[in-house]
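Following the same procedure, backbone shapes were mapped to integers, yielding the entry below.
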Amino acid sequence: MAIKQHLRHVEKDVLIPKIMREKARERCSEQVQDFTKCCKNSGLLMVVKCRKENSALKECLTAYYNDPAFYEECKMEYLKEREEFRKTGIPTKKRLQKLPTST
């Protein structure tokens, strides 16, 4: 069965960007960790002290956000999830939670 390509505005403007943010944060995990660590160690001075880490994190995330191939990858992932939801009526998160465990 072919995946339907029509996307509503909320899918284009909210749902796919949400997947992009989640995946980009995973792929930039080193920069996320560095920035988080710096913020924890700097307290109120983090704005001044963590500029380098913040810039590195922004640069990494922006590279993914501006990558058309990455957008397409996230869009296809969303469309696959949407198709599965339409078949089963079960959201992805609940489907993953209900997987049988091997005991």
About this structure: The chain is about 75% helix and 0% strand. Residues 26-88 form one domain. The first helix runs from residue 9 to 27. The radius of gyration is 18 Å.
